[in-house]
Design a protein that fits this description.
alpha+beta, six-stranded antiparallel beta sheet, five-stranded antiparallel beta sheet, 15 helices, disordered N terminus
């Protein structure tokens, strides 16, 4: 079969990966982005319907629900599909936006976590189909250091990052998907980052802006699905690097469109990404991860809610200058927990630029050096068991 991914450089036999492409210069100012609305409802539409499910831990059951989203006032209503009764009466709930309502995402409504599994009617499915097209983007090994800029480019073109993972393919695995030797070599000569982008006309939109980026892209929606299924069945490398620490980009920062800018800050701050994956934590996982803060920080419960309110990009990173100082150096880059304090004392830190308050402060970093291996192990080993 023909290759699913292709170079779009002027000379496809000699792709040029510029160290400082001009388009990255305008995307590298690291200014906080306002949340873009990828989905644009028709003016005559009144409401949309979605299928949800909630895991009832006490009963050990998955319970099905239906969510109705009313466009005119951003209100929601939830029905229990088993009892056929209203579970949550219609109420304004701006914390859930239309852009959050896509299959596979998780949303938190009044402290209760729901997974979106699909659409409840053909009308909603038809409306959202255009805005939920997916494409597969592969960042090759030579371009890992430009990951932040690539994500910035996607987000500035109204393409949402809905999944992402760093993997390493063997040549024999790449040959199962491709027959083009250039592509096989590109995806099997070192770690690569696979990105699922979602948005209106995602395939063609990314292909139109990807020139001079070290990426490969899907040729069609059918190819995209084949590639996404293939790549996201592969696990990340399980070997933890010496002198590494954890970076956890919080769900609100991703929803705000700031994931690319944050990663760009991390890479420019002198850190190498060893492992990367998007995780959806349930409240139990989030509570386990944050257990050290229970009874210590009054914000503990709100922190658990935020960590489980959508996808989070988790990375294992290492200092490129002094691995023995990775934990402290990254903590300095992140800044104090309170963004308002950061803005006064450390305005160039990640939390100062992308945080809102002590809960929505954009990023989690390891506090103590002895905890770094435990936190990395939690995500890249325990969460996969």
């Amino acid at each position: 079969p023909p290759p699913c991914l292709s170079f779009t450089h002027t000379n496809p036999l000699k792709p040029t990966h510029h160290k400082h492409p001009s388009m990255f210069a305008t995307l590298g100012q690291n200014q906080p982005q306002k949340k873009r609305s990828v989905f644009q409802p028709n003016e005559n539409d009144s409401r949309y319907a979605f299928q949800l499910q909630h895991f009832d831990k006490q009963a050990d059951l998955i319970r099905p629900y239906q969510l109705l989203y009313y466009i005119n006032d951003a209100s929601i209503e939830i029905y229990d599909m088993k009892t056929k009764r209203v579970f949550l009466k219609k109420i304004q709930y701006p914390q859930v936006a239309l852009d959050d309502l896509y299959a596979g995402n998780t949303v938190l409504i009044y402290g209760r976590q729901y997974q979106i599994t699909g659409y409840s009617d053909a009308f909603t499915e038809e409306r959202f189909k255009k805005f939920t097209q997916k494409t597969c983007v592969v960042l090759t090994s030579s371009g890992i250091n430009e990951l932040g800029a690539v994500l910035n480019l996607a987000e500035s073109n109204e393409l949402k990052v809905t999944n992402i993972r760093m993997i390493q393919l063997r040549q024999v695995e790449a040959e199962r998907l491709y027959d083009d030797q250039r592509v096989i070599q590109s995806v099997s000569n070192g770690p690569i980052v696979v990105i699922e982008l979602t948005g209106s006309e995602a395939v063609e939109r990314w292909k139109s802006v990807m020139a001079n980026t070290p990426t490969l892209a899907s040729n069609s929606t059918q190819d995209a699905q084949t590639e996404l299924d293939f790549y996201f069945s592969k696990e990340t490398n399980t070997a933890q690097q010496e002198g590494s620490t954890l970076a956890f980009i919080k769900p609100h920062a991703i929803a705000d469109g700031n994931a690319g800018a944050i990663i760009q800050d991390i890479q420019r701050g002198g850190f190498k990404i060893n492992r990367l994956e998007l995780f959806h934590l349930d409240k139990t996982n989030a509570a386990d991860f944050l257990e050290v803060y229970k009874g210590v920080l009054p914000e503990y419960t709100a922190m658990v809610d935020q960590y489980s309110n959508g996808g989070a990009i988790v990375m294992e990173i290492t200092s490129t200058s002094d691995v023995s100082n990775t934990v402290e150096a990254f903590r300095e880059l992140c800044g104090p927990m309170d963004p308002e304090l950061c803005k006064l004392l450390r305005p160039n830190t990640i939390r100062a630029k992308y945080g809102r308050d002590k809960i929505l402060n954009a990023i989690h970093c390891t506090d103590l050096e002895e905890d770094s291996s435990l936190e990395i192990d939690f995500f890249f080993r325990i969460m996969k068991m």
